[in-house]
Amino acid sequence: MSKTIIVSNRLPVKITEQDGQLSFKTSEGGLATGLGSVFQADAESLWIGWPGMEVPDEQEKNVTAQLNEQSLIPVYLSKEEITQYYEGFSNEVLWPVFHYMSTYARYENIYWDYYQQVNEKFKNALIAVAQPGDTIWIHDYQLLLLPGLIRAVLPEVTIGFFQHIPFPSYELFRLLPWRAELLNGMLGADLVGFHTYDDARHFLSSAARILQVQTASNNIQYNGRSIVVESFPMGIDNAKFEALIDNTQVKQNILNLRETFGNVHIILSIDRLDYSKGILQRLQAFDLFMQDHPEYKEKVSLYMIVVPSRDTVTQYRELRDEIDKLAGNINARYRTNNWSPVNYFYRSFPIENLSALFQFADVCLVTPMRDGMNLVCKEYVASRKNNDGVLILSEMAGASKELTDALIVNPNNVLQMSQAIVAALNMPLEEQTRRMKQMRELVSKYNVMHWVRVFIERLGEVKRMQQSLLTK
Ligand code: G6P
């Protein structure tokens, strides 16, 4: 019987350690929920990935058994592999270059050695369970070589690859010393998917120029195979955010927020700590807004959550310090005894708190310098059951191609962002409703289940098309 195998750097569950005891935490990410639907539909399906921390050798057997019960197959990474493959090649080479921040990239050969080694490790875990008739769906930039490695061993197998971060223009991609090898790896797939048409276009152009392959429309001819490249904008688990609106804890959290903030309007900002998210520029825009509009003193506050991430990578640590400094500086200059302009939290929050904030905030400020899609803005929209509230969204986020009723800004233009804040705070309710309604319809219709369905269906079609070409 054929089955579906999902592969991603991280498993949908995370192992955490407290006082030497390991415990499992279900990931709340949209990907885990969306792909969960593939799992339910197919009892045989499997998910391969890293459990998120270094597991001591003596505990591996026990952890594996527990994960296997949930159809999850762990790929354990050593300390060295975490440093060189995950922090190194994935997050100090690919992440900055793909997010147009190539000056942050460190092209270390040792990173590349480990990247190849760990992709091999994933391949071995995969071929131990895969059959030629299976469908394999590989996710994201940590595993760019994997489609090619699998294709070499299982030439007939169906492979889909989806990249969740941007694919940069050829002029950026060509900077990578290992550009041809990376493309060769990705082209092991039958279907290569991105969030936006522009990402797909950049990928096609890089393949044509670097590998000198033939491309026609969204098709690449490579090593006698025909590969399809398309965009599949990812959605969120809309139903989950709708359901949270009626959750008792969420309702209580909203009451608490109301009590704390009274009539002060809240501008919400939620991100993982990352230089691609434009957090500093957003703070600068808020600073300018405070400076140019003293009439909003004690009337508006920025509620800014930064979720800790990759803080073993130097750039992330430095960014955290700079955010601390700027947020503190703004507060020191504008605060009064009863009011802080910036409420800054460096930690993660339970979903019940996030839902309450999404419902409570008059404005949501999502202004990444680059983002493959960005799901926070969709979560805000899904939480606005009264169809009010204003989304300010960066044109550099993939989501801006869909949420065209947001106030779209260039995140490098601090003045424009501060003006957008004023426009959002003054937008008539009628206009808020008109815009929010449109966005809510889109977010609800093109949810994560839809995304999974469309990708898997297309992958099946592509495979059938390839087979019919072969038998002709
Ligand atoms: C982005 C990437 C994912 C990654 C996530 C969290 O969304 O596309 O592949 O899992 O960030 O980053 P982390 O490094 O903690 O896995």
From TrEMBL:
Q: What is its EC number?
A: 2.4.1.15
User: Which biological process annotations from GO are given for this protein?
Assistant: trehalose biosynthetic process
* TM helices/strands, residue ranges: none
Q: Which family does it belong to?
A: In the C-terminal section; belongs to the trehalose phosphatase family. Belongs to the glycosyltransferase 20 family.
Q: Which residues of the full protein are shown?
A: 1 to 472 of 749
Assembly, per entry: Homotetramer.
Annotated GO CC locations: cytosol
The name under which this protein is listed is Alpha,alpha-trehalose-phosphate synthase
Q: Its domain of life?
A: Bacteria
Q: What keywords does the record list, in alphabetical order?
A: Glycosyltransferase, Transferase
Organism of this sequence? Deminuibacter soli
Q: Please state the pathway this protein functions in, per its UniProt record.
A: Glycan biosynthesis; trehalose biosynthesis
**UniProt keyword Cytoplasm, yes or no:** no
Q: Name one GO molecular function term.
A: alpha,alpha-trehalose-phosphate synthase (UDP-forming) activity
Listed under catalytic activity are: D-glucose 6-phosphate + UDP-alpha-D-glucose = alpha,alpha-trehalose 6-phosphate + UDP + H(+)
